[in-house]
Every structure is written in structure tokens, then in C-alpha cells.
Design a protein that fits this description.
The chain has 235 residues and is mainly alpha-helical. Helices cover 68% and strands 0% of the residues. It is built from 11 helices and no strands.
């Protein structure tokens, strides 16, 4: 089935207008991904190409919103060894196809990206911020949507990711104080973009995220330095 995964019934059925069919297809895909199958990068790209066009043909607003939420749950079905490859295939698909998305369809893909940023944070927390996993995720983000120098990544993707990054990161802590070291790791891709990005506007947007007061709350919670003046993350 892996060689024909893009054409598999459960990928097509995810676009069904029937909720029961969608839920059955989603559960089939979860089981497929959670199995011990060895999925190659090419197979994962084929899967995401199928899912990309599944969303393409799903009408807004509610059906597409529901599908975005459902697709984001796939991440939680993955064994740790597939986490980074699956995310890499997702972001490669998004960045490669972004400029071909018509404006009337763009919102649902932006929503899907937001869901995947949130789900990735949630997955990492569920794995107790395991450092090798965080490092693999960092590499995916720095090579993909938050790449500092990859000219093939549309700035529109970078802007959107930066716009929602802090909100989704803070949300995963659920109002709790964050461990300072973990917050530093999660903000690492943003910091690199702020320092090495080739575009002035992109660097500026990344710098704004680093100075966000919500980040301050998490960092101070982990370090106990509430009395120090906040001059931005990493300063």
C-alpha cells in the first residue's frame, strides 16, 4: 500500500462530506501511521501530496476547518522515529505548493500550518522534551518554514509561522511556567532567523517574537529572574 499511499482510499475519504466516513478514514490512517511500517521520505511526501489536495477539494468553512483539526491529530499517532520525517514531508509540501494556492483557498492552509505548529509543540511535550527529538524538530524548522537562507521558502510562510509561533508555544504550557532551557530550545529557530535571515522584514518579525512579553513569562518562570529587566529573548 505504501507505494500507492497517495491514491489510497482513506486519503480520498478524508475529503468526504459525511462525518462518519471522514472519521473512519482518519482512524485507518492513524493505525497505518502508528504501525511499525518503514515509510521512506518519498512515501511520506506522496502521502502529504494526497492530503494537500484532499484539503484543496474540501469546501470552507466548517468542513475544511474540521479536516485541518483532524489532520493535525495524525502527528500524535506517530512513533518518535517518524516524528521528524513526517513533519519534514508536511513542511516541504506546504512550502513547495504555497505560491500555487489561490487566495480563496489560502486560509485553510494557513490554518493547517497553525494546527501543525501547535501539534508539534504538544507532541514534544508529551515526550518530555526529549532533547534528541527537539533537536530533530529544530532541524526541520530551520531547514523548512523558518529557514534563514533558503530562497525557495516563501516569505508568506515565514510570516505566518512567526505570527502564531509564540501564541501556540505559550498555549502548550497551559498557563504553567516553562522550563527556561526548554523555552530557549523552542525559540531557537526564531532566534536564528532573526540573526541570519536574508530579508530585513523577516528578521524584524522574528525579533519581535523574541521580545514578546509572553516569552518573558515562560523564561522567567524557568529561571526565577523576575526582577531583571526584560530586553528580549536571549539578551
Amino acid at each position: 500500500m505504501a507505494s500507492d499511499i497517495q491514491e489510497s482510499p482513506f486519503v480520498k475519504e478524508l475529503a468526504s462530506s459525511d462525518r462518519r466516513i471522514r472519521e473512519k478514514a482518519l482512524e485507518s490512517l492513524r493505525i497505518y501511521l502508528s504501525s511499525n511500517r518503514q515509510l521512506t521520505d518519498i512515501e511520506l511526501l506522496k502521502l502529504w501530496r494526497g492530503l494537500f489536495f484532499c484539503l484543496w477539494h474540501t469546501p470552507p468553512p466548517l468542513p475544511s476547518q474540521n479536516l485541518c483539526a483532524s489532520l493535525s491529530t495524525l502527528l500524535h499517532a506517530l512513533p518518535p522515529r517518524l516524528f521528524a520525517p513526517f513533519l519534514r514531508a508536511f513542511w516541504t509540501t506546504m512550502t513547495t505548493n504555497y505560491t500555487s494556492i489561490p487566495s480563496l483557498r489560502l486560509d485553510k492552509y494557513l490554518l493547517l500550518m497553525r494546527h501543525y505548529i501547535r501539534s508539534a509543540f504538544q507532541y514534544l511535550r508529551s515526550q518530555r522534551w526529549e532533547r534528541a527529538l527537539v533537536a530533530a524538530w529544530t532541524e526541520v524548522m530551520e531547514e523548512g518554514p523558518l529557514s534563514a537562507r533558503n530562497g525557495k521558502v516563501p516569505d508568506g510562510v515565514r510570516y505566518h509561522v512567526l505570527d502564531v509561533w509564540v501564541e501556540e508555544m505559550v498555549g502548550v504550557f497551559g498557563g504553567e511556567k516553562g522550563e527556561g532551557e526548554v523555552v530557549e530550545l523552542l525559540m531557537g529557530p526564531v532566534g536564528r532567523l532573526a540573526g541570519e535571515g536574508t530579508g530585513k522584514v523577516v528578521r524584524g518579525r522574528a525579533a519581535e517574537a523574541l521580545r514578546d512579553e509572553r516569552v518573558r513569562g515562560l523564561v522567567e518562570g524557568g529561571r526565577g529572574d523576575e526582577d531583571e529587566e526584560w530586553d528580549g529573548f536571549g539578551n
